Amino acid sequence: MSVQGNESISVLIADDHTMFRQGLREILERKGGFTVVAEVSDGIAAVEAARKHRPDIALLDISMPGLTGIEAARRISQDSPDTRSVVLTMHRDERTVLEALRAGANAYLLKDADASELIEAIRVVKRGEAALAGSAAARVLDLLRRGESSAAVMDLLTPRERDILALVAQGDDNRAIALKLSLSEKTVGNRLSEIFQKLGVSNRTQAAIVAVQRGLVPPPDVS
């Protein structure tokens, strides 16, 4: 199967409600261009399935036995960095959104979203961008625009993203960052796209300036 000439997007579905999992699978298979590589019912199994199948996308219910979707996203981000996590939830508060993003989730989608929103979120995340449910996005972006708390901005970034941002601020290119952090250049590029989205910037220069201004990373060494 293909999506407008591109290869199929592989998807892991993790939710403790069987009917919801089946519904997601049906939506994706009916749309075409997606391959569901595994279905699991708890967070621990989600991490293991991500490690085994290396899917492009992991759809994670936020409330699962074993591990929550947020903790599963954190572990998947560490163990399977090329897998992008989409957290599915009924929670609309910005604190939960920030926690999910801090854990490494790439998208935050409400369970009452329609099929077209789900498909679009998956495709956006596959492109290396981040996606947030509308109302939650507005509140999180407002926090960033006001810049009222560097801690709040810091919470948006995972430890690995802060490592990458620090090297960007020092002037390293993607290849150098990849070598220093033992990552692929593709992974570095993907993580940078996520960093730009979270900081509300469009390029690495702006990201470095914001990072230093807000105290997210130390000023670059110019000696």
Can you tell me about this structure?
It is a single chain. With 223 residues, this protein is α/β, with parallel strands linked by helices. It contains 11 helices and 8 strands. Strands 4-3-5-6-7-8 form a 6-stranded parallel β-sheet, with helices on both faces. A two-stranded antiparallel sheet has the order 1-2.
DSSP E strands, number:
8
CATH architecture of the largest domain: 3-Layer(aba) Sandwich
The low-confidence parts are: 1-5
CATH superfamily of the largest domain: Response regulator
Structural class: alpha/beta
The value of Rg in angstroms is: 17 Å
Major beta sheet summary:
6 strands, parallel
How would you summarize what this structure contains?
The protein has 223 residues and is of the alpha/beta class. The chain contains eleven helices and eight strands.
